[in-house]
Design a protein that fits this description.
Radius of gyration: 18 Å
Largest sheet: 5 strands, parallel
Order of helices and strands: HEHEHEHEHEHEHEEEEEHHHEEE
Number of helices: 10
Number of strands: 14
Strand order of the largest sheet: 1-2-3-4-5
Shape: globular
């Protein structure tokens, strides 16, 4: 909707309204790697937006802190403003807004004690830790999974790749992770690689990785400190690097069906699986006593009607 989470509460509300019109009923507002002051301001904005949600907005569940505690060698489209492991700073961020998911890299800068402290903060606060934006080797990533980490941020993207003699983070995710995100815009991940992920990871679920360009015409948009260009269905930096997506969850569902998933399986990967991963027992399924978060689709899987907590929201 032209809005970036890093811009504050009004932008977060705009984003939540755009996604609701495309079938998302709950979401995590995802932050970018940035200098500390900018991250603090963004988190405060998310908290403010959560306190003042309108009926036409997807419910903001909290934050996915995607950076700054990542590898400077696997930024993807993140700005070069990574931070060394710092449990106190991480805890301070968590006090500004409810962090539900954090992306951490086993090879983030900082000593082993500080990295262990970061993981301890996440455990104490019940935050899901996902390995991502990491150039670690297979052994380092596998050790994290064996220690209880069970998620990964946008599988295959911004992580050391799978090679049969150097399996990398991607290989560790496929071999060990119970859950992982996937961006099914058919640009970030080839349909064949999507099938690999589906066979290996029981809890593989869709995320949009959507930027301000989602729901907007072609042109230039903000992504944190970057300017990105939407051209066709892609969003890229000036050098051609994929920079998030313009994906909405209704299109994610259609894309999953187009690569061979049956509708029930595809629907679960945009609803019940991510809800269960976040420990949300009140949504993600249609059953008595659950939230009336419902999406009505036509036979060609386009959105006809969306209900958030039983209240109808405008559709595209």
């Amino acid at each position: 909707g032209g809005a970036d989470v890093m811009e504050g509460a009004a932008a977060v509300r705009t984003m939540a309204a755009l996604h609701a019109r495309h079938g998302t009923t709950s979401l995590l507002a995802t932050t970018m790697t940035a200098p500390e002051a900018e991250i603090r301001a963004a988190l405060a904005g998310v908290a403010e937006a959560m306190d003042t949600q309108a009926d036409d907005q997807a419910r903001i569940l909290g934050v996915h802190l995607e950076g700054p505690f990542i590898s400077p060698d696997k930024l993807g489209a993140q700005p070069p403003a990574t931070a060394a492991a710092d449990p106190d700073l991480f805890d301070a961020y968590c006090r500004l807004a409810p962090v539900r998911v954090v992306t951490l890299a086993p090879d983030m800068t900082g000593d082993a004690a500080a990295i262990a402290g970061m993981l301890a903060v996440a455990r104490r606060r019940g935050i899901r830790v996902q390995i991502g934006h990491s150039d670690a080797d297979y052994e380092a990533a596998a050790a994290w999974f064996e220690a209880g980490i069970d998620g990964a941020t946008h599988l295959f993207n911004a992580m050391s790749a799978l090679h049969h003699r150097r399996p990398g983070v991607a290989g560790a995710v496929l071999a060990h992770a119970a859950h992982a995100e996937l961006i099914p815009d058919l640009l970030h991940v080839h349909p064949g690689a999507i099938r690999v992920g589906l066979r290996a990871i029981p809890g593989l679920h869709a995320v949009t990785d959507a930027t301000a360009a989602a729901g907007m015409p072609e042109g230039d948009y903000r992504l944190g400190r970057h300017r990105v260009r939407k051209c066709g269905n892609g969003v890229r930096l000036a050098d051609g690097t994929l920079a998030g997506s313009a994906l909405t969850m209704d299109l994610a569902l259609r894309n999953l069906v187009s690569v061979g998933l049956d509708l029930a399986d595809a629907a679960a990967r945009v609803s019940s699986l991510p809800a269960a991963y976040l420990g949300l027992a009140d949504r993600g399924v249609i059953a008595p006593g659950k939230r009336a978060d419902l999406v009505v689709l036509s036979p060609d899987l386009t959105v006809q009607q969306v209900f958030v907590q039983g209240v109808a929201v405008p559709c595209p």
